[in-house]
Amino acid sequence: MELKGKSKPTNNEVREIRKDHFLPTAFLYYKNPLQLIKGKGCYVYDEKGNEYLDAIGGIVCISAGHNHPKIQESLIEMIKDDEIQHTSTIYMNHHAAELAEKIISEAPKGLDKCSFTNSGSEANELAFMAARHATGETMVINLRHGYHGGTSGTLANCGHNTWRFKAQPVASTTSALEPYCYRCPFNQKPESCHLECAKNVETTIQTSTHGKIAAFIAEPVMGVGGVITPPDEYFHEVTKIVHNYGGKYISDEVQTGSGRCGNSFFLTKELKIDADIVTTAKGFGNGAPIGAVLMKSNIAESMSGKLYFNTFAGDPYQARQALTTMEIIEEEKLIQNAKEMGDYLLSGLKDLMKKYEIIGDVRGRGLLIGIELVKDRKTKEYAKDEANELMEFTKERGLLLGKGGLFGNIIRIAPPLSINKKQAEKILSVLDESFLTLSNKK
């Protein structure tokens, strides 16, 4: 961008720069993509000053709200004090130490070691390496429809063809069937379910490995997969299976962590999942590039004698922003708010489901919510084009949403945890108007 005082590039100029220099993988939402230049609380603003309610929280990254004053004051204070910007872990710095102490205090019981990274992808890469080193095994079991990041190892464990590349190495990984209740791969209903999806993890180990594994990785709610929300019992069954076959259970809380799902900072803790490793990022730093890996001591100790280094991990400014974010979440009771506003939105969305046949399913936990759109409720045919249209209609009305799922037919709602009832009401009213417009187009 240009220096302050000079004119900034227009939308068309930015698009041309992207076209000339970005990889073609850098996709954009909307027919007329937005250039967002400001943010405050739950709102973002484009270059013309138009206001939008950010109901996707950046990309599920904004937990405390855009430009929270406490975060601003904290970082400005560091700059004014000429605090060092980069130390890495080869020097001591109190910000990273205090953050480690704070996040361990929120961790599930038994997870008392941590390491910081720059992203969720890196966090999951470290989790794979630690599990493989601790067990001496290499095989990692993942889930179809799962997503764990954009690096080599994480994409090897990705359950979406749209994210994988032809040259993507997939050695030492295999996939179990997804715990996708709305589209159960076993054609079961809740009343007839016997956790076939969980038992399939054991079948996968028995048929696709030599009988021992390094790890199993799963998101407590599968975000990119379309907010797939497995039954609580699923995790307990799978954890037993994984441990019986010598593996470590990795709970990927990159999206579900930081209180987004209500009740607890980590959903792993709320669900009482006996995880060996928990990863997190996104909302952990309220938009700052920071992630974390929490693990049990025996796994950490197995890495003694080896060197692991991440140039920017735990740097002072990112660590300070993450710690301040955690303090805000606690002080402003944002986890409780996520539960209350999430319940309110889920109830309202289920009411909309009664009005609009295109809504096939509404699901989620706290402020991580998915609306699955289908052309027909009986056939459950994916309504991908309709999802794109709906997003255009909501944008025109000042509401930004996300989408996901293998075929892009699932609307994702993940606003800042600070959202209030009036803003939640706006989400519902704009969706109501937009669904009505979509229905009238048919």
User: What is the domain total for the residues?
Assistant: 2
What about the largest sheet? 7 strands, mixed
- Give the CATH H-level superfamily of the largest domain: Type I PLP-dependent aspartate aminotransferase-like (Major domain)
* Level-1 CATH class name of the largest domain: Alpha Beta
Write the layout of secondary structure elements.
Layout: H1 11-21, E1 36-40, E2 43-46, E3 51-54, H2 57-60, H3 69-80, H4 94-106, E4 111-117, H5 120-135, E5 140-143, H6 152-156, E6 173-176, H7 196-208, E7 215-218, H8 232-244, E8 248-253, H9 267-270, E9 277-280, E10 291-296, H10 297-302, H11 316-331, H12 334-355, E11 359-365, E12 368-373, H13 384-396, E13 399-400, E14 402-404, E15 410-413, H14 421-441
Parallel strand pairs: 3-13, 5-6, 5-7, 7-8, 8-9
Antiparallel strand pairs: 1-2, 2-3, 4-10, 9-10, 11-12, 12-15, 14-15
Report what the structure shows:
- With 442 residues, the protein is an alpha/beta fold.
- It folds into 2 domains: 11-64 and 333-441, Aspartate Aminotransferase, domain 1 (Alpha-Beta Complex), CATH 3.90.1150.10; 73-331, Type I PLP-dependent aspartate aminotransferase-like (Major domain) (Aspartate Aminotransferase, domain 2).
- Helices cover 38% and strands 16% of the residues.
- It contains 14 helices and 15 strands.
- The protein has a 7-stranded mixed beta sheet, with helices on both faces. Strands 1-2-3-13 form a 4-stranded mixed beta sheet.
- Helix 3 (69-80) runs antiparallel to helix 11.
- The longest helix has 22 residues, at 334-355.
- It is globular, with a radius of gyration of 22 Å.
